[in-house]
């Protein structure tokens, strides 16, 4: 679609994919959506992005990133049938983290039928220079029906400038008050009674806290972060693993006398070793139905077993940070249950989302060894701090040794293992 053109939307359940090509020097890019009435949001709740993933109506949901051989997409699910009647426009935006859009090659937005995967609209944005945010497209109502318009409007003030332009209140770093150089003059003595004080004004209702745009990406150069300093030491923390599902060649079968390729879906299992301050140790995993518990020891719960790798579902662990003093260390790891012989060619992302504080994410490195188990993140309680350390460490089990026993040995957990099954 050329810039400024529009197209009818044939269905209401849509997947919006913001796509670009990654590489050295290319900044990260994030998709977001704003639901508008009269050109502005009604409140900060009408802003959907990585720190506020779902709109209260359920009409828009941020799904997250996938990396397929260097082609990265950040996706939003949009259900126009659930958009509230007052909403006139759904803005689809992009922001660059750590650079400008002049450094982002092949930027485009694809609108697809969420059920069928068929193309509805595509807009390729080119000619960017110093912009750090873009409105790439929008859904808007026209005579009772929805349409999509290719916009292509750039901002030089990043996600913060774009958000505030549409009425979002953005959290800003606190400024240290200036120090008084001299004490204020003393009040003169009162010779007459003070006037009667007017009645106190009613206390206004508490305002919602401003939206925080901060996030933390762990890398080899900066592999750890303090949850304590981020304010993420209470409530729950969700640990999500998502990956690109690839079809793996696994052999040949005969059909009508001709060879036919057989495939298996990749099945990864998110797991965690834990050690509590009272000395108890254990494992959280779907193997053996060891799902844990959130409100009693070990205060870690595995949500379920997923085969899709989708961010909205995927593999999820939940950790109860209200009991952080019970933790000594937690090692989050992933094993291949079936569908592949190693992590080679796998593109996966780990996201830790505390209820309070900035989300922490990182991608797995390319696997160059025949590994079936990967240590993802080590969470350590130092007594006065809770540290998340990016591991991204591929391990190769010896013959006859399970992936769980392999990661146990590598990190000195010292547990006894018996065979288990799903």
Automatic annotation (TrEMBL):
Which family is this sequence assigned to? Belongs to the CAPAB/TerDEXZ family.
Domain (TerD) ranges: 3-166
Output the InterPro entries linked to this UniProt entry: Stress/Tellurium_Resist, Tellurite_resistance_TerA, TerD
Name the chain's protein. TerD family protein
Give the domain of life.
Answer: Bacteria
What organism does the record attribute this protein to? Streptomyces ferrugineus
Q: Which CDD domains match?
A: TerD_like (cd06974)
Amino acid composition bias (Pro residues), ranges on this chain: 182-209
Question: Which stretches of sequence are listed as region Disordered?
Answer: 171-212
């Amino acid at each position: 679609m050329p810039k400024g053109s529009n197209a009818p939307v044939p269905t209401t359940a849509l997947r919006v994919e913001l796509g670009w090509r990654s590489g050295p020097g290319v900044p990260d890019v994030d998709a977001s959506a704003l639901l508008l009435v009269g050109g502005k949001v009604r409140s900060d709740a009408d802003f959907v992005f990585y720190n506020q993933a779902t709109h209260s109506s359920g009409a828009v949901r941020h799904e997250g990133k996938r990396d397929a051989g260097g082609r990265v997409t950040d996706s939003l699910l949009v259900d126009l049938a659930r958009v509230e009647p007052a909403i006139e426009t759904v803005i689809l935006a992009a922001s660059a983290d750590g650079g400008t859009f002049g450094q982002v090659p092949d930027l485009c937005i694809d609108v697809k039928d969420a059920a069928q995967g068929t193309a509805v609209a595509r807009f390729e944005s080119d000619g960017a220079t110093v912009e750090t945010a873009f409105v790439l497209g929008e859904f808007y109502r026209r005579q009772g029906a929805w349409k999509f318009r290719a916009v292509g409007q750039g901002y030089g003030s990043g996600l913060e400038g774009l958000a505030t332009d549409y009425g979002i209140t953005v959290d800003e770093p606190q400024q240290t008050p200036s120090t008084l150089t001299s004490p204020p003059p003393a009040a003169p003595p009162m010779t007459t009674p003070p006037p009667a004080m007017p009645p106190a004004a009613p206390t206004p209702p508490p305002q919602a806290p401003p939206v925080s745009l901060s996030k933390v990406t762990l890398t080899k150069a900066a592999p750890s972060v303090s949850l304590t300093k981020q304010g993420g030491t209470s409530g729950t923390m969700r640990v999500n693993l998502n990956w690109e599902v690839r079809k793996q060649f696994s052999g040949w079968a005969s059909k009508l006398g001709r060879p036919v390729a057989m495939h298996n879906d990749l099945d990864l299992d998110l797991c965690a070793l834990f050690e509590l301050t009272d000395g108890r140790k254990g494992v959280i995993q779907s193997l053996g139905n060891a799902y844990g518990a959130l409100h009693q020891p070990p205060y870690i719960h595995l949500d379920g077993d997923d085969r899709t790798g989708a961010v909205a579902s995927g593999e999820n662990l939940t950790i109860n940070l209200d009991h952080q003093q019970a933790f000594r260390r937690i090692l989050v790891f992933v094993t291949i249950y079936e569908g592949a012989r190693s992590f080679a060619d796998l593109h996966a992302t780990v996201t830790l989302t505390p209820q309070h504080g900035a989300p922490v994410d990182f991608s797995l490195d390319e696997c160059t060894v025949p590994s079936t188990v990967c240590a993802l993140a080590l969470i350590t309680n130092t007594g006065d701090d809770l540290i998340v350390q990016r591991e991204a460490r591929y391990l190769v089990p010896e013959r006859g040794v399970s992936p769980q026993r392999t990661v146990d040995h590598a990190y000195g957990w010292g547990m006894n293992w018996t065979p288990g099954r799903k």
